[in-house]
Amino acid sequence: MVTEVAIFIALSGKEEELGQGIIQGLEFIRQHPECISANATRCVERPGRYMLTVVWSSLEAHTEDFRNGPLFTQWREAINGMFESNPEVFHYQAY
Predict the structure, then answer these.
(1) Which regions form coiled coils (predicted)?
(2) Domains of the chain
């Protein structure tokens, strides 16, 4: 299993809208058969900063299967135009 951690920073004035978009978009991520879990949290000190954590069955399940499929497009449509540049994305494995 691999955990994806993505940090999204809302555009000024879009903080609440991004949060709602992320919540709606989680449903598309969760539909992928290789998604084990998907959650989002909001930073307390910086309310425009959101952390998405998704547990995938493998790195390829995320980087190849999900990102090249229709669910990724639907996920991004839910949040497009609400965050600064590309999110910072890293993958972690239990040690």
Answers:
(1) none
(2) 2-92 (3.30.70.100)
